[in-house]
Design goal:
The complex is a heterodimer of chains A (about 300) and B (about 800).
Chain A: E1 2-24, E2 34-44, E3 48-51, E4 62-66, E5 70-83, H1 97-106, H2 127-133, H3 143-157, E6 159-160, H4 171-177, E7 179-180, H5 182-195, E8 200-207, E9 225-231, H6 233-236, E10 238-242, E11 247-248, E12 253-259, H7 262-265, E13 268-274, E14 278-289
Parallel strand pairs in A: 6-7
Antiparallel strand pairs in A: 1-4, 1-5, 1-13, 1-14, 2-5, 3-4, 8-9, 8-12, 9-10, 10-11
Helix pairs in contact in A: 2-5, 3-5
Chain B: H1 3-16, H2 28-44, H3 49-62, E1 66-67, E2 76-77, E3 85-88, H4 89-113, H5 118-121, H6 127-131, E4 153-160, E5 166-172, H7 179-193, H8 196-199, H9 206-218, E6 227-230, H10 239-249, E7 252-254, E8 259-262, E9 265-270, E10 273-276, E11 279-282, H11 286-289, H12 305-311, E12 315-317, H13 328-331, H14 334-342, E13 353-355, H15 359-367, E14 372-376, E15 390-392, H16 398-410, E16 415-419, E17 425-430, E18 433-447, E19 453-455, E20 460-463, E21 479-486, H17 513-540, H18 554-566, H19 581-590, H20 598-610, H21 618-625, H22 636-660, H23 665-689, H24 696-705, H25 709-715, H26 722-731, H27 739-752, H28 764-776, H29 786-807, E22 814-816
Parallel strand pairs in B: 3-21, 6-7, 6-11, 11-12
Antiparallel strand pairs in B: 1-2, 4-5, 4-18, 8-9, 9-10, 13-16, 14-15, 14-16, 17-18, 18-19, 18-20, 20-21
Chain lengths: ~300, ~800
């Protein structure tokens, strides 16, 4: 599938802010089975933009520096991306959870999966989440089927509600209330998987805005989305699970960045001096381009 | 003293000392040193160990030694035990060699982790032992510290078993907490015991610190580098230690706010603008260093410090991310890494450690659970050990054991098993008796100017009140002690100033903007407290005029009480009836709830002073922290006495500032604070008590409040009259309480401060101060109007703003922008 993506954010401040330094994590990092082209970042007022060195995680960071006082900032990120098709389904010969956990500990690279075994800043190892999922993640179960069940269970047991949580809500609160948005669900699932000894990552990305004919519109398509990447052993590799929609991520899921949790991949964070009363409007459009299959540009 | 009592200490102790005790186990020549020391101390203390303990504790208090436990609001007195531990040169040589080898090994491991990662690739070190550490920072991969030194200092906690063997309990590279305390323990002990240390041939600590200083400087880009000690701030547990070390080593004590990164270079904000910083000795975890690269929640770091590191040319000690080698999990691999990397066995063994992330080790730990201590592999909260980071396996029974075993199956990589540590003891004084206590030593290792490792010949000794002592620097009820390395021959004298003498210089170095800010406000609050005290004294009847005080004509009294309320020393609308004078003054003196009470003002002074620890003499510190004298609101005399004693203290502070502070820019800011506050108060008092309708009572009180009674009487034989009083208090250029005098000092100060302008034009503070002095200079008391006073006050307020704008940090609260888009 090939998509045209437009993501516009407008920030307004009640009082001028100075010396703003923002990290933007909006440009898709390289990921197997996906390509990106024609990337554009439009910022008004014009900032100094520094493209950071590739950081630790599969994340592309752009640094904006705006020295002069501003009351409004508009950021638009545009690109074309292709996602390889082909639905992933649980297989009879999938490795078990126990086997994957053992394999993760003996991996000899400093890359994944070892980075995703431990708690992150926003994903503490909450015992209550382990108690809730322990039976579902029995070491003898095949990993893909078990993880899909977990995603479905989160989708069923949690109420999707915008506005009840924000980017700073601790995952323990969202878990206790069994409600939240994609970020909260992805955090709960990541913690549950790690508590079972599995390498699980938090992914930020986009969903196709309008579904293919005859398919339901996915929840979370009007903003940036978040889901979970689980390392399923050396053979199956990374597989995406979307607990908000209770499914395995397919060619409607467009990968942007991956880290231990939201803190590593936040679309935008930073520092400024002064100001207060920030308000925000976001517009996301992910439109499929009617083109034959998978054709990466040369 | 008679010999009975002397030999009493040593012999009584030895009779009851457990096996392996440091003294009881000592070689004959070391045992002789122990006896000499105990005899000398016993004779000094007239045979009573409690006296000795008091004596040493008093020295520690005089040095301002203090600390906090996590969660403490106030600092605690430092629990320094009066008996140092003695270790002979031969035994020390073994420890020293072992720690230098270990420092080398750790340096090579960190450097490999952040560069080629060959140890992981070759299977020598599991990746998940590295990534499990919360102190591992992926973004540091590929960055290169100056001269390749990831580590400049290293501290090891070591313990001595009952058989006399030394083992390393923990490695520390994040912050060298304890090194300053070790130095101060030595200082306190040597002050308390005269020439005892020298007589025992105790090796000196000073050369280690000069080596450390040179080691930091050697990796900086410039030859006479500017190095900052980066502190998390005054609420940090070891802030007092950091301030002391900064002063001792001649480093700038800086907080994140003081620093700024511009175009990849680090600068400190000073009153002379931004100045390059060549190196940082950081006393905060990597996670807090840069909110844009590490933890976005950090409010104490420096934005883009990471970029300054990555770009090169900045020395940071230890390099961010170095903490990865501290974990218990990694310690399990050190014996085999020593063989792989150094081709040798560890000279000082670890306590044996098994990381459960490997199936065989996990099975071993499960099988020997009762004989081992279970620990969190990365010092993080883990499900199987809900209360503490480590527990003896034998103490886990029933449900908690089942929970641990289940957790161990779920996430084995979160756990280590460690052998039980049995520690030998050393003499300590408990309840006035010599008592054996188990101990550990924290020993410090640092690079010298040529990059070689040097070991501090001493230690921070921690004596455990109870239980395992592997957690924090100090636990509740623990004591610290000095440790002395004893040479066979006398040691040559050396001090920090000895050795390669530095170039002579006469200026006190750069004044950071925040220090200027603090010094200025320190002056303002001290002056404000003094003014409030004079007001209280006037109300309570402290005037030298016999008929003043509570019997004042009521309009004057009303104005005085109104002032107390206006300054926030008593609640607004507090009554002025004669009966209420005592309680009212008691509130103004001692009610911490009133922001303008003397107690609240002195607390603010102490608070600001805390941020200036590295710049204030200990005498200043002692005066500021003295508790308020006692008083009884019902007895006027006690109120008068307490106010007078407080005024004496403030006079002592003024005296210290006048006689002891170097006339650098720091002193100017402090003095400007005093002058500005005094002048603003002067304006208000003159407007209130020397208006056109002023009564005799008003003028008398005013002379008293502005401490000019004597001056007035020496000039005029009559009672107070309006024009002469106005002239003396507003305009007389030689009266140090007069407005004009403050104005002239302020003008002198701002004229002497550095300017940022290249065109020679005056900066704003200088323009305002000049205008103020010029406004008052030509006037005399008979011409002065209240409009002149109002204009002067307006100028003073504008001057205060202008000084703040020009010299102090203009960064108000930095906001984070965390946006869920």
């Amino acid at each position: 599938m090939i998509y045209h993506v437009r993501h516009r954010t407008i920030l307004r401040y009640a009082a001028p802010v100075r010396l703003a330094r923002f990290n933007l994590r909006l440009k898709p990092a390289p990921w197997p089975g996906q390509w990106t082209s024609d990337y554009e970042l439009l910022v008004d007022p014009a900032p100094t933009i520094v493209e950071s060195r590739p950081g630790g995680w599969p994340v592309q960071v752009a640094r904006l520096v705006i020295e002069s006082p501003i009351r409004q900032l508009s950021i638009e990120s545009r690109f074309r991306a292709g996602v390889q098709g082909g639905a992933i389904t649980p297989q009879l010969d999938d490795p078990t959870i126990g086997a994957v956990a053992r394999a993760a500990l003996t991996d000899r690279t400093m890359g994944p999966p070892s980075h995703y075994l431990y708690a992150g800043a926003r994903t503490p190892m909450l015992a209550q989440i382990g108690d809730w999922t322990r039976a579902a993640l029995d070491p003898d179960r095949p990993i893909v089927a078990a993880a899909l069940d977990l995603a479905l269970r989160i989708q069923a047991d949690f109420a999707y509600r915008t506005g009840v949580t924000d980017a700073d809500t601790p995952v323990a609160d969202a878990f206790a209330a069994r409600h939240g948005v994609c970020q909260d669900f992805a955090h709960v699932m990541v913690i549950a998987l790690r508590l079972a000894g599995l390498p699980a990552a938090y992914v930020s990305g986009y969903l196709r805005t309008l579904p293919p004919p005859g398919m339901p519109r996915l929840v979370g398509a009007d903003a940036m989305h978040a889901w979970v990447m689980l390392w399923c052993g050396p053979t199956r590799g990374w597989i995406g699970f979307d607990p908000t929609n209770g499914c395995i991520a397919g060619d409607g899921h467009l990968f942007v960045a991956m880290g231990r949790d939201y803190a590593d991949v936040a679309p935008m964070d930073g520092l400024f001096v002064g100001g207060a009363g920030q308000s925000l409007s976001v517009m996301v459009d992910v439109a499929p381009q009617e083109e034959p299959a998978f054709s990466a540009p040369a | 003293m008679d010999t009975d009592i002397r030999s009493g200490w040593a012999d009584a102790y030895l009779a009851a000392a457990p096996q392996g005790d440091l003294f009881a186990d000592a070689s004959p020549d070391m045992a002789a040193h122990w006896r000499t020391m105990l005899d000398r101390l016993s004779s000094q203390a007239k045979g009573d160990p409690a006296t000795l303990a008091d004596h040493v504790a008093r020295q520690a208090a005089d040095l301002g030694l203090a600390f906090r436990l996590t969660g403490d609001e106030q600092e605690r007195a430092w629990p320094l035990g009066p008996l140092p531990l003695l270790i002979g040169a031969a035994e020390w040589r073994h420890i020293e060699t072992g720690l230098v080898q270990r420092a080398d090994l750790l340096e090579r491991i960190v450097s490999d982790i952040y560069s080629t990662q060959s140890l992981v690739r070759d299977g020598k070190l599991p990746a998940s032992v590295v990534t499990g550490s919360p102190h591992y920072w992926r973004v540091m991969t590929g960055t290169a510290p100056p001269r390749g030194h990831f580590l400049h200092f290293y501290a090891a906690d070591i313990g001595r078993g009952p058989g006399g063997e030394w083992r390393v309990l923990a490695d520390r590279v994040r912050t060298p907490v304890g090194v300053g305390y070790a130095l101060e323990n030595r200082l306190a002990f040597s002050r308390a015991t005269g020439d005892l240390l020298g007589a025992m041939n105790t090796r000196r600590l000073a050369p280690f610190f000069s080596d450390l200083r040179r080691g930091l400087a050697a990796d900086c880009a410039r030859s006479d580098p500017r190095i900052g000690l980066l502190t998390p701030g005054r609420f940090n547990q070891s802030y007092a230690e950091q301030a002391h070390l900064a002063r001792y080593l001649g480093l700038m004590l800086v907080e994140g706010d003081d620093l700024i990164v511009s175009e990849g270079r680090l600068f400190v904000r000073t009153i002379q603008g931004l100045k390059r910083v060549d190196g940082l000795w950081r006393w905060m975890d990597s996670r807090f260093l840069d909110p844009l690269a590490f933890d976005g929640q950090s409010r104490i770091g420096v934005a883009d410090l990471y970029d300054a590191c990555a770009r090169g040319g900045l020395m940071v000690s230890n390099w961010p991310g170095a903490g990865v080698i501290e974990s218990r999990a990694l310690a399990a691999f050190l014996p085999q890494l020593a063989r792989a990397v150094l081709g040798a066995d560890l000279i000082l063994p670890n306590i044996a450690t098994w990381w459960c992330g490997q199936p065989r080790e996990r099975d071993h730990v499960r099988a020997r659970l009762d004989a081992l201590v279970l620990g969190s592999a990365f010092d993080q909260p883990v499900a199987g050990l809900p209360e503490t980071p480590f527990l003896p396996g034998a103490s886990l029974q029933g449900d908690s054991r089942a929970a641990l075993l289940a957790a161990l199956d779920q996430r084995p990589m979160d756990y280590v098993g460690q052998e039980m540590v049995k520690l030998s003891t050393t003499p300590a004084v408990i309840d006035g008796r010599l008592t054996p206590l188990p101990f550990t030593l924290r020993i410090f290792v640092a690079r010298d100017g040529s990059g070689q490792w040097r070991v501090m010949p001493g230690a921070f000794a921690r004596l455990a009140a109870h239980g395992d002592i592997r957690a924090a620097l100090m636990g509740r009820g623990d004591m610290s002690a000095d440790m002395c390395v004893i040479d066979a021959r006398p040691v040559p004298a050396d001090s920090l100033l000895g050795g390669g003498a530095p170039a002579i210089r006469r200026i006190g170095g750069m004044l950071p903007a925040k220090a200027a800010d603090n010094l200025f406000w320190l002056g303002r609050y001290i002056e404000r407290a003094e003014m409030t005290l004079r007001l209280i004294r006037a109300i309570a009847g402290g005037s030298i005029e016999a008929d003043l005080g509570p019997s004042l004509a009521s309009p004057t009294m009303g104005r005085l009480v109104g002032l107390l309320a206006a300054w926030g020393a008593v609640p607004a609308g507090a009554g002025s009836a004669q009966a209420a004078v005592g309680p009212l003054c008691a509130v103004a003196l001692g009610d911490a709830q009133q922001p303008g009470s003397v107690r609240a003002l002195m607390a603010t002074v102490a608070n600001i002073g805390e941020g200036l620890r590295d710049r204030l003499a200990s005498d200043v510190w002692r005066l500021v922290r003295m508790p308020l004298p006692g008083f009884d609101g019902a007895v006027t005399e006690t109120l008068l006495d307490a106010s007078s004693r407080m005024i004496d203290r403030i006079s002592a502070l003024s005296g210290l500032a006048a006689e002891n502070m170097g006339r650098g820019d720091g002193w100017r800011f402090h003095d400007m604070g005093r002058r500005l506050e005094r002048a603003i108060h002067g304006c208000r008092l003159i407007a209130l008590f020397a208006g056109d309708q002023a009564s005799d009572d008003d003028l008398t009180v005013l002379l008293d409040l502005m401490d000019s009674q004597i001056s007035y009487r020496t000039r005029y034989l009559t009672g107070p009259a309006l024009a002469p009083v106005r002239d003396l208090l507003a305009l007389e250029p030689v009266n140090p309480r007069a407005l004009a005098w403050q104005a002239q000092r302020l003008a002198d100060h701002v004229a002497a401060l550095p300017t940022l302008r290249a065109d020679g034009l005056p900066e704003e503070p200088r323009r305002i101060a000049g205008a103020l002095a010029a406004q008052l200079a030509p006037l005399t008391g008979d011409m002065l109007t209240m409009a002149d006073i109002a204009a002067a006050e307006t100028r003073l307020l504008a001057l205060s703003d202008a000084i703040g704008q020009r010299y102090f940090l203009q960064l108000r609260k930095t906001q984070s922008a965390d946006i869920l888009a």
